[in-house]
Structures are given as structure tokens and as C-alpha cells.
From TrEMBL:
Residues 292-383 form the ACT domain. The lineage of its organism: Eukaryota, Viridiplantae, Streptophyta, Embryophyta, Tracheophyta. Keywords: Amino-acid biosynthesis, Aromatic amino acid biosynthesis, Chloroplast, Lyase, Phenylalanine biosynthesis, Plastid, Transit peptide. It comes from Oryza meyeriana var. granulata. GO terms for molecular function: arogenate dehydratase activity; prephenate dehydratase activity. Its EC number is 4.2.1.91. It is an enzyme of class 4 (lyase). Pathway: Amino-acid biosynthesis; L-phenylalanine biosynthesis; L-phenylalanine from L-arogenate: step 1/1. This is Arogenate dehydratase. NCBIfam families: PRK11898.1. Its main location: plastid.
Amino acid sequence: MDSTACLRLPFLPARTSRSSSSPRRVPRAPSSIKCCAAADFSSLSISSASPRRPAVVNGVDGLAGPPVPVPDSPAPASRDLHWLPRPLTSADLMGTSGEGLKVAYQGCPGAYSEAAAKKAYPNCQTVPCEHFDTAFKAVENWLADRAVLPLENSLGGSIHRNFDLLLRHRLHIVGEVRLAVRHCLLANPGVKIENLKSAMSHPQALAQCENTLTDFGIEHREAVDDTAGAAKIVAEQKLQDTGAIASSLAAELYGLNVLAENIQDDKDNVTRFMMLAREPIIPRTDKPFKTSIVFSLEEGPGQLFKALGVFALREINLTKIESRPHKKRPLRIADDSFSTPSKQFDYLFYMDLEASMADPKTQNALGNLKEFATFLRVLGSYPTDVNEA
Ligand SMILES: O=C(O)C(=O)C[C@]1(C(=O)O)C=C[C@@H](O)C=C1
């Protein structure tokens, strides 16, 4: 990855990056929030160019991020009140353009994850990362403000690695974005479908196109880290018998021809991505929200039934359930007193609830679950993506 171009020195909030002992006069204020380069949080301002006292609100997800400065120098002699900060509106808090934000994704430029990052934060600066883990760390270490990572695909299923990483890291889910994935078969100029013996791509993309590839008579599959990375390899190595499955944008970027479009096995192919941040957002009840949780249970009959019951009883709809090995305790000794003790697999359950953490019903359900769960963590409460994928 060409990380040097994207991952620059960690930027810090104005509080730490600017000396507090150098007060500046506050000039007349523009009336709206202005975002500048993300590397300098201090340049996001409501009212002045002198950001010495950061507040805790940002302009995108609604929580900590670029600080909104409050001028603390005396009022100018004339009674011009424009220099005073205007009150924040909820539009400021929930703005979604992402101007000035650095958004980490896994893959090379032209990957679907980059398209998802741009869909989530249209004016952001995207930061390609080699691995999912790198994207998590980029946000944790302030090299990026958000990460946008795939969680599940309508044809290929869950991206298990990211479920595991959610627990290993301390980031919060602050949003979701669904992206329609339209795969293309790409090859070097002059290469025809009949010449192809192998298809190279991300394992999810290969899985999503399995039947079509077989119909094309392409027998071999080569898995790489991301779809755009496959296009890059095919182009750089001038491969003549291998095609890449990637986006039409990747074809443009790496100088490949599009041999076939829309080659996924079902035309409705949607990947759901999560948006991650260092801070959670403030949950609301005035629009559809989801809450993602992870928990583990005691061994025994009816435990999962009981866990599902806390939501069913309160009419909270579940949109997703996924079980993963309990990495800290993958096996446990089960002694049912009828046979010799045996080792059983232990699981973590990831669930998405169609509910906001701001709703007392959700809080009660989770309070109830906590009474018998052996572990429970809320991964985030965030607006449901209601837009067309
Ligand atoms: O390889 C890419 O382009 C990605 O963004 C990754 C990824 C995935 O992990 O599922 C994203 C969307 C598609 O489902 C295929 C691949």
C-alpha cells in the first residue's frame, strides 16, 4: 500500500496541537460551520479562525471529532455581535458530507470499500489500508477519523474477520451503508473471455460470481486481498490467461478492458458496510436506528431462547444474528453428569436490533439480558441506512 501518501502524522484535536499560551484576536465570524483540511481539526470553525478552545461536537456523526471552537477574546469595541458563535443546530450534528474527514478502508483505490466510504461520507478523503486490522488501527491512532468496513453481503454472507475485530478493538459503530455491488470481468487489452483460465479477486467477490465464472468456462480461482488489488496485479503483470473481478472504476484506474458487466450470480447484490469511529454517536428516537450488540451465554437448554425472548417480549425486531467462536474461551468443559466431562465449543452472539439505545424499551431489554449473559457489549447505536443500495 502506498501508505505514505495517505497516512500522515497523527493529527490531534486543537487542544493538543496548538499552544494554549498564544491567544489570538477573533476576527468577525462567518455564520456557518466551515471545514478545512482534516489534518488540522482546528480549522473547522463556526465563528472564527482562532480555534483555541475545542468543544466536543463535530459536524458529521454528532460526537467528538473536529472540535468546534468557542472564541474567548473580548468583544470588539463596536457592538457587532456577529463574532459570537451561532448555536449548533441538529443539522450541524448530523451532517453527513464528511468534508475534511479521513476515512480508512481496506483495499486499493477502486475497491468497493472505497465506494462505500464515499457513499457514507461524500466529501471525505479516503485512506487505503492493507488489512482490515490496519483500518481499525488507523482510526485508533488518529491517522484517520473513520473506518468503513464490510460486514456482510447478500450473496456471500458475513465477513467474519470484521466481527472478530470489532471485539478486539474499541471502536464504535456510528453508521451503516449499503452498497449495490456490480462486478465486472476485467482483462488486459486484447485478451478475450475464451483466453481466460483463471479469475482473480477478493474471496467474497469470487463467491458472488461463482456460477457465472463456471458458465464462462473459467476453472481456476485466485484469492487476493481486494478486488481492485486483483485488477492491479493483472495489469502490472500483464497477465494473459487471468482476469480480475472488480468494479468498472478499477478497470479505468488500472487500464483494463471490461469483458463482461454485472457478472454476480444475482443482480441484487448488496454489501453492508459499517462506519466506525473512536466515539459513539448520541442515539435518537426520531428516525430509524439500529443497535449492534455482542454477548455470550451460559451453557444449558433454552439459554439462547431466553436471550431472544428479551427482545421478542418487547417486540424488538432482530435484523441479524451471527455466532462466532469465543476466542478467549473457545472450548469449555461440559459436565452433564451422565457421561464423562467433554469439551464443548463456546460462542459469541452478534445481534443487530431494529431499535435505538435512546429508547427505554431497548435499555430494559439489554438490562434483562445482562442479568443472565456472561458477557455483553453494545457495539453501537446508529441510524439505519434507509437509502437505496
Ligand atoms: O475487495 C473489495 O473491493 C472490497 O471492498 C471488499 C469486499 C468484501 O470484503 O466483501 C467488499 C464488497 C464486495 O462484497 C466484495 C469485496
